[in-house]
Amino acid sequence: MRKVLIANRGEIAVRIARAARELGIATVAVYSEADKNAVHRKVADEAIHIGPAPAGASYLSVPALLEAIKESGADGVHPGYGFLSENADFAEAVAAAGVTWIGPDAAAIRQMGDKVAARASAQAAGVPTVPGSDGEVHDLTEALAVAEVTGYPLAIKAGAGGGGRGIRVVQEESELAGAISTAQAEARAAFGSGAVYIERFVPRARHIEVQVFGDGERAVHLGVRDCSMQRRRQKVVEEAGDIDVPAEILAEMAGASVRLARSVAYTGAGTVEYLYDEERAEFYFIEMNTRIQVEHPVTEMVYGRDLVAEQLKVASGMPLSFTQEELVPRGHAIEVRINAENAANGFIPSPGRITRFEVPAGPFVRVDSGFVANSVVSPYYDSMIGKVIVWAEDRDRAIARLDRALRELTVEGVVTTAPFVKAIIDTDEFRKSNYHTTWLEGWMAEQERLGHGVCDG
Q1: CA-to-CA distance for 83 and 403, rounded, in angstroms?
Q2: What are the TM regions of this chain, as residue ranges (predicted)?
């Protein structure tokens, strides 16, 4: 592979460009009108304009991207995460153009990236799944029939979704009709498919995910990540290393994940996500993401492996550069997402020009971002402006390092969630790993009841 077109923007586009450059591979950025001065455009060797600001006319436009591939002469396409990264039709179109898709092939994306089909594959492989619909739910009549079995609360999820997006929690029957139509409309707008399915909602679960990697012949795992700190199903803090879940449960999750990957001769990076019910000591498969994850850096820090570089090598036809026995975790890593949002005012987006941007440094501190001072945060896209990642020998020291790093982070011109994140890591519950997927919203409600701001702790 000699030239890769990066079909994405922001920090992941910068991350891919860096990995490619270290491997001697040229890169092509694509950008919308809103991103004409974006960092990801400048770090690539070439850049091609693909359309106006709305994602549907640019980053989600298959014709625009195929034209950019043709114009650039790229022989590889890295989709990053989000946008078209799990769109099998796009992967197929890229391959049909004689260009390498950096990720699993279209068949594997359809089988595992489609959340409805993935549930069936997991069940066939003997992996426990959350009780719910057998496939896509088309209307209220079908939804009511499923709810009769699962009970309430239940979750409506986008079949093509991921990253916590496209999920609606329904507490009672009267909410179901509106939630179904809203979830279908949101799924269609975000992922290009209105397909949704239903699962029982487990309110006090831990969200644990397993990083897998395959080369079509072998598949391995790179441990687990705890992504239980969530607000409205969006991950806020992610950890790898010393996860407070019984070792035998984690080993079962890892084994099940590798079996799934092997069942489809998986190629590239993937993540198998589970809910862990601490009260029942049971885990359930929820979905597989057939692409690199936002939180992949914590795995990289704990295992000392460059997962994006590995994607590029495997897509070039090389075998996995490591065996399962060579993958030995060390220490603990934590990542926090920094969004341009006002936590003190309902998390409303805070687009605009960043007038000052100073990031933390020092040993074992990493910042992945697609922004610098004078960058403009666009209202058209995801509000995340960066990720702060730290590593240390154990979890307590990693928390201390993260505390120090967040104190050094300075962003002016837009409001960010950095104070909110700092307040979270200061809580006793976080420091004791005593939290689950709905804990954060309960904590926020309690802060409001006490008259505290959510940024105060």
Answers
A1: 32
A2: none
CATH classification of 3-85, choosing from 3.10.105.10, 3.40.50.20, 3.10.129.10, 3.40.630.10?
Answer: 3.40.50.20
For residue 29, give the 3-state DSSP assignment: strand
**Beta-bridge partners for 129:** 285
CA distance 82 to 396: 32
Residue recorded with tokens 């960043």: 354
Which residue in the list 168, 231, 291, 401 is annotated as catalytic?
291
Question: Which amino acid is present at 298?
Answer: V
Contact 123, 93 (CB under 8 A): no
pLDDT single digits (tens) 260-286 = 999 889 999 999 999 998 888 889 998
| pTM for the predicted model, two decimal places | 0.91
136: buried, middle or exposed (CB in 10 Å: 19+, 13-18, 0-12)?
A: middle
Q: For 133-206, where are the alpha helices, taking DSSP H only?
A: 140-150, 176-191
Say whether 205-450 and 3-85 share the same fold.
no
In CATH, the number for domain 140-200 is: 3.30.1490.20
Domain 205-450: which topology?
Answer: D-amino Acid Aminotransferase; Chain A, domain 1 (3.30.470)
Give the pLDDT score at 118: 85
Cα 423 from chain centroid (whole Å) = 23
Can you say whether residue 373 is alpha, beta or left, with left for phi > 0 and alpha for psi between -120 and 50 degrees? beta
The mean pLDDT of the chain is 94
Over range 183-207, report the average pLDDT. Answer: 86
Alpha helices in 237-354 (DSSP H): 247-263, 296-303, 307-315
Residue pointed to by tokens 């590239």: 268
Distances 224 to 212, 245, 288, 357, 397 between C-alpha atoms, Å: 9, 10, 14, 32, 19
Contact 20, 26 (CB under 8 A): yes
Would you tell me how many other CB atoms lie within 10 Å of the CB of residue 3?
A: 18
Secondary structure of 363-404 in HEC code, one letter for each residue: CCEEEEECCCCCCEECCCCCCEEEEEEEEECCHHHHHHHHHH
User: Does the structure show a pLDDT above 80 at 453?
Assistant: no
Phi first, then psi: give them for residue 364, nearest 5 degrees.
60, 35
> What are the extents of the domains in the chain?
3-85, 140-200, 205-450
Give the number of other Cβ atoms within 10 Å of residue 187's Cβ: 24
Question: What separation, in Å, do the N-terminal and C-terminal C-alpha atoms of the chain show?
Answer: 49
State which H helix or E strand residue 85 sits in: none
Annotated catalytic residue 119: no
